[in-house]
Write a structure and sequence with these properties.
Layout lengths: L1 H5 L6 H8 L5 E5 L5 H14 L8 E5 L2 H15 L7 E4 H11 L11 E3 L1 H14 L9 H13 L13 H20 L1 E3 H14 L1 H10 L2 E4 L7 H11 L5 E5 L15 H8 L4 E5 L7 H11 L20 E8 H17 L7 E5 L5 H10 L4 E3 L9 H14 L4 H7 L9 H14 L3 H10 L5 H21 L4 H11 L2 H8 L1 H20 L22 H11 L13 E5 H4 L4 E6 L10 H4 L2 H15 L2 E15 L2 E4 L4 H4 L6 E4 L29 E4 L3 E9 L6 E6 L2 E6 H4 L2 E3 L1
Parallel strand pairs: 1-7, 1-8, 2-3, 2-6, 4-5, 6-7, 9-14, 9-16, 10-12, 10-13, 11-12, 13-14
Antiparallel strand pairs: 14-15, 17-18, 17-21, 18-19, 19-20
Helix pairs in contact: 2-3, 3-4, 5-9, 6-7, 6-8, 7-8, 9-11, 13-27, 14-15, 16-17, 16-20, 16-21, 18-19, 19-20, 21-23, 22-23
The protein binds a DNA duplex through α5, α9, α18, α25 and α26.
Length: 731
DNA sequence: AAGATAGTCGTTTTT
DNA sequence: CGACTATCTT
């Protein structure tokens, strides 16, 4: 019993309530810096130690691999023992495991492969081309985005009404053809993993029951980021077991644009009426002034669940606001403050520069470089998504699955071996005509001399090479296979020729891939059954396991040299982190909030939450900076200071004005309260229209009989005159 | 078929 | 401005 009370030490009252509360469902509204991860970690330890629940019966879900491994490590640290058998993973990782174990029930091939977003776009592009659609008019990116949003909502083509709308109709055709291509090729994209895992529950009740019995506790982190399918999957898995604890913060929901449903938080209380709600409002991270700024800002949003952060760390310094003439001036100011910081004996890694969009990093980089201050930029390209890496992986895929068309297309002429687009078109046409893979098609074309002599030779060379690789690799282990491919594919020489820093980096990455294969531990990926063993039929080879791992875990930032560096990243990627010194750069209307998000109230609110996330990263010192003039896409633009600045209480802001005396004149008033005057409608209201169906009010203008509202229907958004539209309120 | 040059178009990101 | 594509030249 001694260990158990230990778990509650140094926790505040609501935290204890979360950790030691009864086994029933609960919703934890955890403000920024309120010890959310700590609560989750201690809760799991408590379930094991005090409630006697086996780790084997616990499922903890996160959004990123990093969060998952951190959680596992912290629990193991707390318990002092390994957590073999406990499921801690991302939604996608867990869905993947389940689909592998029950691939037949899920209607998948045993060796189905996972498409990453790049693969997916490529495939959609092929589908669009094969449908004889104009790819200018129907860009693959957009179609992919559309398909993913449907899947995120749990919609299959058969569930979607096209209503004679050309946009919907065409995308529906693409979606259907794409789904067909995936099924035939044994390919599953990220959204599909989730959707299929959910459908599996519905389709196979015995299987669902098995997992419902297995898990006596379900825990979810970052709940505000769940999309419709993820939540549906959870809800079905929880069933009537009353064992689901979700932790989240509606004020930090910043991924609505990729399907996250902030409403899931409210929905949770409705779906689990017996659940209790606990608020964590004491912040252990920031000074009171920083929290006042954050609270003041977020108070401008409507429909919040309500939460006010407080701290006993003291007021601290006021926030500094700086206006630069232009972005270079802004960067210089930031770097000067960083110099001060360092000269006061602080670590560089304790300082972070956060911005809205990646493009902003460039100027900052230049100035830091000139001042010889080491920095590190987070985000951007991930390891397994790099072109050179994906090429090697494609050869490896062909070794294990020569019929993988996506892998074939990728490397058939990489490095260039004389098989141009015309030859590939020929192969593709033959493959489609005979309903066979590109591999089989090229084999037959070569055998029957259907290609020109030159092309035939090149294609034969490629086929022979892959066969040779396959033969050789039979005797080799994973890392030796990687070495073999890198050595003999000619990719090394190909990138060597590219020269420059870029080519050099690519070569280094190839070497890094060998290391990644060396250190890869497939046992971690295995699906353990009740007896602690993986069901034999679902076991994949190390090679296949590695390939799945590569798509599912795009790879941490390149094994970072651990030099003490200034941290630079977007505000999105800063979520969950904290720094003693924080700069929010580019606080200008148009940049932040971004132009594309300024029109719709809903999206503006999300930008505001992003700003809230940015502010709450700061522990002690926070600087807000903006530029009066900025080069965007090559031309000078003048922007007003961000409206968010004026939403921060004046008393915590100190304006640092070194250059001139321009005064902030953004109007300071509470923006519209959301009610459409003279009607019974308000922003965010769900309504039904006779013809367009159900939708949500995004915006309005005018009042009374002249009031118009913008409603977002499934088919797109429309402006309607309230007096004529006959909208019926829902819910 | 491969390399060179002109044209386009610009959020945020994980899996 | 600069990364990525489409089209042209050899």
């Amino acid at each position: 019993m001694m260990d158990v009370s230990n778990l509650l030490d140094n926790l505040n009252e609501p935290q204890r309530e979360c950790v030691a509360g009864p086994k029933g469902s609960s919703l934890v509204l955890a403000g920024a810096g309120s010890g959310k991860t700590r609560v989750l970690v201690h809760r799991i330890a408590w379930l094991i130690k005090a409630e006697g629940i086996s780790p084997f019966s616990i499922l903890a879900v996160t959004f990123t691999n990093k969060a998952a491994s951190e959680m596992r490590a912290r629990i193991e640290d707390l318990l002092g023992s390994s957590l073999r058998g406990m499921w801690v993973g991302t939604f996608h990782g867990i869905a993947h495991r389940i689909l592998r174990a029950h691939y037949e029930d899920a209607g998948l091939q045993r060796d189905f492969q996972i498409l990453d977003s790049d693969d997916q776009i490529r495939l959609v592009k092929r589908v669009i081309l094969s449908l004889d659609l104009d790819e200018k008019k129907w860009p693959a990116r957009q179609a992919t985005w559309w398909i993913n949003s449907q899947k995120d909502e749990g919609l299959r083509p058969k569930n979607i009404e096209h209503m004679d709308d050309l946009y919907l109709k065409t995308h529906l055709v693409i979606y259907t053809a794409y789904e067909d291509a995936c099924l035939r090729g044994g390919m599953v994209d990220f959204a599909e993993l989730l959707l299929r895992a959910h459908e599996l529950w519905l389709k196979k009740p015995e299987l669902l029951k098995h997992y419902q019995n297995r898990f006596s506790a379900l825990l979810v982190d970052e709940f505000q980021d769940t999309n419709s399918v993820q939540y549906a999957w959870l809800r079905v898995l929880a069933g009537n077991n009353d064992n689901l604890m979700v932790v989240g913060d509606d004020d930090q929901s910043i991924y609505g644009w990729r399907g996250a449903k902030i409403e899931n938080i409210q929905q949770f209380s409705k779906d689990f009426p017996q659940s209790n709600t606990i608020r964590l409002e004491q912040n252990y991270r920031s000074t009171s002034n920083i929290l006042k700024a954050a609270n003041g800002l977020i108070d401008q949003n409507f429909g919040r669940l309500g939460k006010e952060l407080w701290t006993d760390l003291g007021d601290g310094e006021p926030l500094n606001l700086f206006a630069g003439f232009n972005e270079i001036d802004e960067a210089r100011y930031i770097v000067d403050r960083i110099k001060d910081w360092i000269s006061q004996g602080n670590m560089r890694s304790e300082a972070a520069i956060l911005y809205r969009s990646n493009a902003q990093s460039r100027v900052l980089e230049e100035v830091l470089l000139r001042s010889q201050i080491p920095y590190k930029i987070y985000g951007g390209q991930r390891f397994f998504e790099r072109m050179e890496i994906k090429n090697v992986l494609a050869y490896m895929r062909l070794i294990s699955q020569p019929h993988s068309d996506s892998a074939f297309e990728r490397v058939v002429n990489t490095p260039p071996r004389g098989i141009g687009s015309k030859s590939v078109d020929e192969i593709r046409g033959f493959a489609r005509g005979n309903n066979i893979s590109l591999w089989d098609a090229s084999q037959r074309l070569v055998e029957n001399n259907f290609l020109s002599a030159r092309a035939s030779n090149s294609v034969r060379g490629f086929l022979d090479f892959v066969v040779l690789l396959t033969k050789k690799s039979e005797q080799l282990d994973l890392e030796e296979i990687v070495e073999l491919v890198v050595r003999e594919s000619g990719l090394k020489e190909y990138h060597m020729k590219e020269g420059g820093e870029r080519g050099q980096a690519r070569l280094e990455n190839l070497a890094e891939l060998v290391t990644a294969a060396q250190t890869f531990d497939p046992s971690f990926e295995y699906l353990l059954d009740d007896d602690g063993l993986e069901p034999e039929e679902s076991r994949l080879s190390d090679l296949e396991e590695f390939l799945s791992h590569a798509s599912l875990e795009a790879g941490e930032q390149q094994a970072g040299d651990s030099e003490d560096c200034i941290q630079m990243m977007t505000m999105h990627s800063a979520k969950g982190l904290e720094f003693p010194l924080v700069f929010l750069a580019g606080m200008e209307d148009g940049l932040f909030p971004h132009t594309m998000s300024m029109e719709e109230p809903g999206r503006l609110e999300e930008e505001r939450r992003l700003c809230y996330v940015g502010i709450t990263r700061a522990m002690r010192k926070l600087y807000l900076t903006y530029a009066e003039s900025r080069r965007i896409h090559g031309n000078e633009t003048m922007n007003r200071p961000s409206r968010f600045i004026s939403e921060i209480p004046e008393e915590v802001l100190k304006e640092v004005r070194m250059n001139n005396t321009v005064v902030l004149n953004t109007p300071k008033r509470k923006i519209r309260d959301g009610a459409v005057d003279g009607t019974d409608l308000r922003l965010g209201q769900r309504v039904i229209h006779e013809k367009f169906g159900e939708g949500v009010i995004l915006n309005y203008e005018g009042n009374g009989t002249s009031a118009r509202v913008q409603v977002n229907f499934n088919s797109g958004s429309k402006w309607l005159v309230v007096a004529y539209a006959n909208l019926k309120a829902v819910g």
